[in-house]
Specification:
The complex is a heterodimer of chains A (about 475) and B (about 70). Chain A has about 475 residues and is α/β, with parallel strands linked by helices. Chain A is built from 16 helices and 15 strands. In chain A, about 40% of the residues lie in helices and about 15% in strands. In chain A, helix 3 runs antiparallel to helix 4 and helix 11 crosses helix 12. The longest helix of chain A is centred in the C-terminal third of the chain and has 23 residues. Chain A is globular and about 60 Å long. Chain B has a domain of about 45 residues. With about 70 residues, chain B is an all-alpha fold. The chains are: A alpha/beta (about 475), B mainly alpha (about 70). Chains A and B meet through helix 11, helix 12 and helix 13 of A and helix 1 and helix 2 of B.
Chain lengths: ~475, ~70
């Protein structure tokens, strides 16, 4: 492995420590990152735009600031990338669409501004499913993104570029956005960690909406520790987004060191381990054994009323996007990809009662989750019941033999956290027989992302799945 | 299964007219299929919630702890 490749394999925590000690130059690190993007990304199509000169300029500024004694923290000088729906001042922010292909924001999204304040370097804008409205990143305008573990497979979506780029060492960390699954699904399919924060933890200001009552942005990184560092930089109240909460953001690092002693984890009876691809089931069962060996207590708990969950998620996630896109759908319908256009048109034809009942269901489910999380610290499920399908797949045949459309199929476990608004972390927990990564999902209490980081970090210390790299 | 359909092309045309949305006639069959599936799922949620009319407070558009003006 070359020195440049060594540098791009550093985690944010590792690179940040070396930069802080003066042992690593941000310019050298960003140069290595840009070289790797140039070399590898033609196979993955994970980036829509790479502003190399701007990134190098920011790296030189970071290096000068640190040399002058102005160190801004663990992200200072580290190369990250933003999903294309996050506004950056002066850069085309198209949300992976043709409709917004000429949109140049005159200000940063709040999370972009907070990353700048923390000294992070933006190395590019990441490919995504058009308007974040899909689960494959098979983008008709910018091309399909591909999975670095097997380029014939999808990286998932909608933050597929984020997942592929982080796994392939094309950036140290990335931002994804998650409405129904779009951080955790690509994290699982690409063998990296990703956290969907509590709704209200991270500002959506300056991020192109998909479904207002479900959307949240969050970090996607190779380690849980890096997710914690990135979340700490962007989380917290934002007067520009009234849905953000005035809840203090803790320093997550002391929490990471606490280990698994006394942690109580629930698996959902007749749900967590049913209907899984064989390799997914064995990886998740092995992960449960590892967590128990580390000191966690795992118990099976019933959780009724899950049957309507995917339907309720889809109802909200069809009605709200239709409202956001109503004007464009009438003015320029031909500028949408076929799959997105069909969902938006369908959303126009729903009844109001469908939407209201789906929202009421969320209230019922949230109360059940709150009740369960009084007795346990986290709820464990697989992230997805199967590994990444082929690029272009629109249906998935489950272990039971049932064939589902790909959106419904990936939602079995993914739908629950967005419906209830609670945080969920996906961590890599092994590989199936097809050589593709498997993800483990941990769902926690509102604003208690720290406990999820604690469990995920302890699991990573006991395993080496997160250190595996695709051979690109 | 055809007799169980709740949405056909004519209904798509009518609903689209109510929504003042123009749908290309060639797209109506596929959209009718998609909408039929989605509404079947949405109706399942309706039936589930029909039995829970007592559940209050109805709809929480914001999770209570995320209301910045109440924190």
């Amino acid at each position: 492995m070359s020195i440049a490749a060594d540098l791009t394999s550093l985690s944010i925590a590792e690179a940040g420590d070396r930069i802080a000690r003066g042992e690593l130059s941000p310019v050298e690190l960003v140069e290595a990152t840009l070289s790797r993007i140039e070399e590898v990304d033609p196979q993955l199509n994970s980036f829509i735009h790479v502003p190399g000169e701007q990134a190098l300029g920011a790296a030189r500024a970071a290096e000068a600031a640190i040399a002058a004694g102005y160190h801004l923290g663990p992200l200072h000088g580290t190369p990250i990338a933003l999903k294309d729906n996050v506004s950056v001042r002066g850069e085309v922010s198209s949300a992976g669409s043709k409709v917004l292909q000429d949109f140049v924001p005159d200000g940063d999204a709040t999370i972009a501004a907070r990353f700048r304040a923390a000294g992070a370097i933006f190395v590019g804008r990441l490919n995504m499913h058009e308007f974040a409205y899909g689960v494959t990143t098979n983008n008709p305008h910018y091309g399909a993104a591909r999975n670095p573990w097997d380029t014939s497979r999808t990286p998932g979506g909608s933050s597929g570029g984020s997942g592929a780029a982080v796994a392939a060492r094309l950036c140290a960390g990335a931002i994804g956005t998650d409405t129904g699954c779009s951080i955790r699904l690509p994290a699982a399919f690409n063998g990296i960690a990703g956290i969907r924060p509590t709704i209200g933890r991270v500002s959506n200001h300056g991020i192109t909406p998909l479904a207002w009552t479900l959307d949240t942005a969050g970090p996607m990184c190779r380690t849980v520790e890096d997710c914690a560092l990135m979340l700490a930089a962007i989380a917290g109240f934002d007067p520009a987004d009234r849905q953000t909460a005035n809840v203090p953001v803790p320093d997550y690092r002391p929490e990471l060191a606490r280990g698994l002693g006394g942690v109580r984890i629930a698996v959902i009876e007749d749900f967590t381990l049913t209907g899984l691809q064989a390799g997914v089931a064995s990886a998740v069962e092995a992960a449960m054994a590892e967590l128990e060996a580390g000191g966690a207590q795992i118990r099976e708990v019933p959780l009724p009323n899950l049957e309507p969950s995917i339907s309720a998620l889809m109802t909200v996630d069809v009605a709200e996007p239709a409202a956001y896109h109503a004007a464009w759908l009438r003015e320029r319908p031909q500028d949408y990809g076929d799959d997105v256009r069909a969902l938006l048109e369908a959303g126009e034809l729903y009844l109001a009662t469908h939407y209201i009942q789906a929202q009421r269901y969320r209230t019922v489910l949230r109360d059940q989750f709150d009740e369960m999380l009084r007795d346990v610290d986290a709820i464990l499920t697989p992230t997805v019941p199967f590994t990444a399908p082929e690029v272009g797949a629109t249906e998935v045949t489950l272990e039971s033999g049932e064939t589902l459309d790909i959106i419904s199929a990936v939602m079995r476990y993914n739908a629950l956290p967005p419906l209830v608004g609670l945080p969920a972390l996906s961590v890599p927990c092994g590989f199936a027989d097809d050589g593709l990564p498997v993800g483990l999902q941990l769902i926690g209490r509102a604003f208690d992302e720290g406990t999820l980081f604690r469990i995920g970090h302890a699991y990573e210390r006991a395993t080496d799945w997160h250190r595996r790299a695709p051979s690109l | 299964m055809a007799d169980e359909r709740t949405v056909d092309e004519a209904m798509v045309e009518q609903l689209a007219r109510l929504a003042e949305l123009e749908i290309d006639p060639q797209r109506r069959p596929a959209l009718a299929d998609q909408l039929d599936g989605l509404l079947r799922e949405a109706n399942a949620v309706n039936r589930f919630m029909d039995a829970r009319r007592e559940v209050g407070p109805g709809v929480r558009y914001h999770h209570p702890e995320t209301r910045s003006d109440e924190s």
